[in-house]
Amino acid sequence: MRNIVLERIVSLFLYVMVGFALFLLFRGHNRPGGGFIGGIIAAAGFLLYGIVFGSEKVLEKIRVNPRYIMGSGLLIALLAALIPMTLGKPPLTGVWTSLAGIALGTPLLFDIGVFVLVVGMIVSIFTNIMDVLKWNS
Amino acid sequence: MEQLAIVLIVLIFLMGLMVPVLRPLLKNYTGRILALVPFALFGALTFLFFSLPDETARIVETGFGFLPEMQFSFRIDGLSLIFGMMVSGIGGLVLGYSSFYMAKYAGKTKFYFFLILFMGAMLGLVFADNLLALFIFWELTSITSFFLIGFDHDKDKPRQAALQALLITALGGLCLLFAVIMIGNLAGTFRLSELYSQGFHFGAHSQYQTVFLLIFVAVATKSAQFPFHFWLPGAMNAPTPISAYLHSATMVNAGIFLLLRLNPVMGGTIAWKGALILTGGITMFIGAFFSLGQKDLKRILAFTTISALGTMVMLIGMNTTASIKAALIFFIVHGLYKGGLFMVAGIIDKNTGTRDITRLSGLLKSMPVTSIAGILALLSMSGLPPMLGFIGKELIYDAKVQMPELSWLVVPLGVAANMMMVAISILVFYEIFIPRKNKPAIALLHKEKELPGNFLAGPVILALIGLGLGMAPGWLNNILSNAMFYVQSQAVDVHLTLWHGFNQVLLLSIFTVAMGTVIFILRRPVGKLVGIIIPWTDQYHLPEKFNNLISNYLSFAGKHTNRIQHGYHRYYLITFFMATLLLIVYQLLSAGGEWFHPSESSPVRMHVVLVLIISAMAVLFAVFSKSRLSAIVSMGVLGYGVAVLYMFYGAVDLAITQFLAETIIMVIFVMVIFYLPDFAVLSSKKSRIRDAIIALSVGAMMTMIVLKARFINLEEPISQFFAEKSYLEGHGRNIVNVILVDFRALDTLGEITVLALAAAGVFTLLRFNPIKKKSEK
Predict the structure, then answer these.
(1) Structure ipTM
(2) Residues in A touching B763 (Cβ below 8 Å)
(3) pLDDT value at position B775?
(4) Based on the domain organization, do B142 and B81 belong to the same domain?
(5) How many CB atoms lie within 10 A of CB B543?
(6) Residue that finishes a domain, picked among B234, B267, B300
(7) Residue B498 forms contact with A (CB below 8 Å)
């Protein structure tokens, strides 16, 4: 039985969740938040979406295989680890530049990597479980 | 030019790694086009070959390394040039040759990938100036050759042969590592150039015997010396281009190279001479002897390789100027003829469908070019003029005759081995090339003219080089002098000539050829004799013994692993908790000191107590609940309770994470739990009581740790450091996050890798079900 009200709310709410997750990711360096928390919240948005629409719709929504998302997260974090090495510093040293008064650095890139990986991981796990359980309403 | 050479070596590595990308672009031309890089390297080395002055070595620093002691620096001297030219030149020819040979094989990408990486590793080994770098390249050759030997991985035999080769050479590799570290510690440097310039020689040191033993095992395993020789004949299960390459210039010759490299550092002692001469002599003899009894052309060649390696080891062991010179020349000779012969064997195999010498015949008529290349190589193998092989053999005899104390042993052994080499050369020549009446000429699949040039080029070029160098050996004088300087650490002038004059050595040669011919004429009785001896030695068939050893070891390990890794999750947990409990409680009690300080007591806060009571009730409910779902939900309540406590004490990030993780876990749990059967009481009352006791004690332990932790400061707390540096150097006010992504980023990197692995684990657990997949389709 379809519940149109729920479906509308959830599909709108997905964007709210992901947006809030991104917000938390970027403010994480100064206030509570960060890549891990943001990642879980974004993934929770997809999880909610999946419960209502089924896992296939989630995969349609994100278009990319979640395992690739996971892998790219790991690669982004690795990149953040390697960038300082090109400047002759030990790996994972924070390298900072300033753009319009906002300090940007490899730790942010690292955090983004964590975010992407966590989203990919949770989405991958729950879509797989749902698939096996034939949870496609 | 030195830099160019090194850049080309690096390029070969890159090219190997790029093969998966390049092959779709180059299609059938892959082998031929990729061969250009080794040829370019060969060109650069040739230039150096002519321009390198005597008694100098060029060192190229790359500035790249894993450790300060382990820089990838390269040295170009006579020795590395000789080996490097053979590796790159024959490598290029083999690549061109493979282009046609491998045309119908599946998995060509894999083939080129490993072949080129193998080539790069071998070049790195030869040119390395740092012993640790040399070790790394040494291991790389072992690993890549494992994949090359086991190329037909869907067949049983190549797989076994590859595993055997890997296990044996890896044993040697480990020995080499220990030896290298010990040499480095004794000398205070890992650099060959420093070792050489210091004139370091530790023959009198008390640890010399150990180091020598390790080096000896490394060399004997890599270069297939008795009693480790048995992996080499098995290794010819690989496609022929690989055999040609492994046998002629690379892999097995790495051991020879290592001996020559280390000769100035540790050569010439009694142990060195005794062990090398003895093993080399035995290997030389049995290799030649076993080759007589074989029918498969490649197997014949494999055993003659063993014999040749034995010869080289023995010559190096003799450690005289003449013998080192002979060893160097013989390496070139052997590389040229063995590469050529293997390629000829491959061409014959491709074109007739067999390598059995009893079935092949009359190829001289039907495949003249191949045959003439093969015959020239055979001439070189049997040491007849005007090939380079003749000079090589003359020098070997010369060295042996000059060996004062041991000439009574090495001369007869060497003559006997060479007689058999001559006999086997004539036998191969007679059986497969000469047209005979009582043996029908074998049918060809293609006419020789139809075979592509790059397929025939390999053996022809190698044979012509062998011939040319035999005619004009003076070309090698300079480079040999240079190599001799670095092997013998004294200046030696080398003059090679084809004609040595009429002397004792020439008489020996004539005698050898005559006796070889006699053996050939008497091949039927000799064949019978060998036929008797081989089954007798087969009782001690080393490859099988080795396989049995390995499989026994594996089953032994399997039994014990099954005992320890029983697979019962509850017992793992019990073991883990009990061990932790005992260790930590012992530590806590023995630490002494106070557990609780009255001044720290603060007024009881009602809301905290309330949360604690709710959490405790949730736990009790979970324990005694009869339904899975309610147990899970009550565990969730506990999780939220903990998160609320975090909130009360100001750990906001922690609390958020706890809330979120708890939520996601709950949802996924509920999803899965729905499909599980109802709770059933499977455990007895006894075991439940045991579990309860363990659980309570672990809880008590945690409480004790938390209480005690406030009074034990092993190190200065670093929270102050984090608080200070967080904003100044980490540009963040949220210390938790700065720690996660900056101060302790390596931990985080490890953790997220674990997360990715966990997700991969879930995926494989859920999806990897081949039987189900088939039935669904």
Answers:
(1) 0.89
(2) 67, 124-125, 128
(3) 45
(4) yes
(5) 14
(6) B267
(7) no
